[in-house]
Amino acid sequence: MKLINIAKNLIGMSILFFCVSCADLSENLTGQPTTDKFFHNLTDFESFISGAYTPLVRLYGSDVPYVAGSGAEDVSTPVVRWKGFEQININSVGNPEEITDELWNNYYSSISQCNTMIQVISQNTDVPKEKLLSIDGEARFLRAFNYFQLVRWFGEVPLLTEENQTNAAQEPQSTIAQIYDQIVDDLKVAETTLPDTHDTPKRPSRWAAKALLAKVYLAMAGFPLNETSNYALARDKAKEVIDKKMYRLENNFFDLWLWVNRITNSEFIFAIYASSDNGTGSYVNRAVRPWDHGENGWGDWTSDKRFLENYPEGDSSRLKGTFYLTMIDGTSWENTDYAQPYVGKLRDGGAKIGGYYDAAISSNGDGFFCMLRYSDILLIYAEAANQAEGAPSKAAYNAINEVRERAGMANLSNLSMSQFDKAVLDERNWELAFECNRWFDLCRRHILKETMSVYYPDAKIDDHNYLLPKPNDQLSIMIGLQQNPGY
After folding, report:
1. Beta bridge partner(s), residue 342
2. Same domain, 243 and 387
3. Within its chain, how far is the Cα of 112 from the centroid?
4. Using an 8 Å Cβ cutoff, are 294 and 328 in contact?
5. CA 296, CA 291: separation in Å to the nearest integer?
6. Nearest 5°: phi and psi at 173?
7. In angstroms, rounded to a whole number, what is the distance separating the alpha carbons of residues 428 and 219?
8. Which of 33, 59, 239, 383 has most Cβ atoms within 10 angstroms of its Cβ?
9. pLDDT tens digits for the chain (487 residues)?
10. Is 337 exposed, middle or buried (0-12, 13-18, 19+ CB in 10 A)?
């Protein structure tokens, strides 16, 4: 296919996804770029791939992924129309597509941009190919990231690549195994073509690709694939990142979540950044604040007081960065209108940059959302090593204890395989709260019912609850798409 036709084909894609991403192009163009206007130099390619991040900023700067995973212990929402997600009874929600549409459309919008980039690079004649290897790797990393989210939220979905996306409406949904195979293939390319480092975590390095691959292998080892041989692969890939010694835990957990440290902290491996200056701002900083007591927020979602009540004793250092328990005017969270503990991690942001407690907030503000950080990799290693080896090794203990020490907690020792496994899952719950991890941990370990029945004893939780319903508008367009069971 000629490059000149790519724009025409992508216009057809917008009918399917309704929100195909617009790149932050260096020229004032309308529609997608064509070869007579674009793709003549390296800057053109870099400008185009930057557009693949825009849907992700839009998504993680909103309520959507946090509410979608609110069936785990860490997140609660007072919004009545979203309660079905929290109570693991999505069929009780009046319109779950308010959430599922945004997940589906934004991930696929980013995928579309990546597919186009990969195709353009393969047909490029103006720029030496060796100069485009890293951008090709970036597109494959982002495509893998997007499919990793889609397959965990929705299960079997259409696997659209540069080879078939122009025929999207006719493509059948792929199996979960096929989607994971594509994810692994893309990340294996990315870890060899991405640069060793970037100036900021907002552009993936080869170590980000390795870190994401470790997380993917860990997911593949669990439900629904249950390919337990992947525990060893997850262990080994996480060890590569650990042994590189490029990342380290910040001494102060609280400092991780300050806007002023968003680029310079030593722990972020891959992060997404929103800015009030460029039209891709975030409102999460406002959504996690209550409206009263000087906070001027919306209180769209909070933590759950039961989650806070179960927080481990002695974990005062991590608790301060995780939760926000005293309002600007000194009021305790128990005496706010919502009477729930609030989220500290995503609080620092807004149109005006200030301190952590700055009340200058905006619905189109600054924000940052960490997708991969070093403590996650340490805990992936600990869990995967224990599962692969049948007992916790010294290295596995070292990994989890490094995370616990930063939180101010005592080291673990002399645990059985099952005791250590539970300890790691618990540690992930506390360490990675509100970062879109706990829901997926409950699902991949197939412990959703036994864990959440304590919170919602009347919920009829079965295997259909592990996936979200696919959006009805996509079912009406895509010939081969089938609704997930139970919806």
Report:
1. 324
2. yes
3. 18
4. yes
5. 4
6. -75, 145
7. 14
8. 383
9. 333 333 333 333 433 333 333 333 223 323 455 555 678 899 999 999 999 999 999 999 999 999 999 999 999 999 999 999 999 999 887 789 999 999 999 999 999 999 999 999 998 888 998 999 999 999 999 999 999 999 999 999 999 999 999 899 999 999 999 999 999 999 999 999 999 998 888 999 999 999 999 999 999 999 999 999 999 999 999 999 999 999 999 999 999 999 889 999 999 999 999 988 767 789 999 999 999 998 989 999 999 999 999 999 888 889 999 999 999 999 999 999 999 999 999 998 765 544 444 545 567 788 899 999 999 999 999 999 999 999 999 999 999 999 999 999 999 999 999 999 999 999 999 999 999 999 999 999 999 999 999 999 989 999 999 999 999 999 999 999 999 999 9
10. exposed
Residue type, 422: K
Q: Give the domain CATH number at 330.
A: 1.25.40.390
Is 230 found in the same domain as 163?
no
Same domain, 199 and 159: no
Nearest to 59 by CA among 253, 266, 227, 280: 280
| Inter-residue contact 215 to 199 (CB < 8 Å) | no
DSSP codes of every residue in 327-343: -TTS-BGGGSSS-SPEE
Q: Are residues 273 and 131 in the same domain?
A: no
Residue 47 lies in a domain: yes
Last-in-domain residue among 133, 164, 190? 190
In this structure, is residue 85 part of a structural domain?
yes
* Domain final residue, candidates 190, 222, 255: 190
Residue span of the structural domain in which 326 resides: 195-455
CB 376, CB 425: distance < 8 Å: no
Q: How many CB atoms lie within 10 A of CB 449?
A: 16
Q: How many CB atoms lie within 10 A of CB 415?
A: 18
CATH number for the domain including 64? 1.25.40
The answer to the question of residue 342 being in a domain is yes
The answer to whether residues 218 and 444 touch, using CB atoms and an 8 Å cutoff, is yes
Q: How many domains does the chain have?
A: 2
Name, in order, each residue with C-beta under 8 angstroms of 332's C-beta and a sequence gap of 6 or more: 325, 326
Eight-state DSSP code of residue 440: H
CA distance 443 to 466: 6
Whether 462 is in a domain gets the answer: no
Q: Are residues 372 and 357 in the same domain?
A: yes
d(CA 235, CA 381): 5
pTM metric for this prediction: 0.92
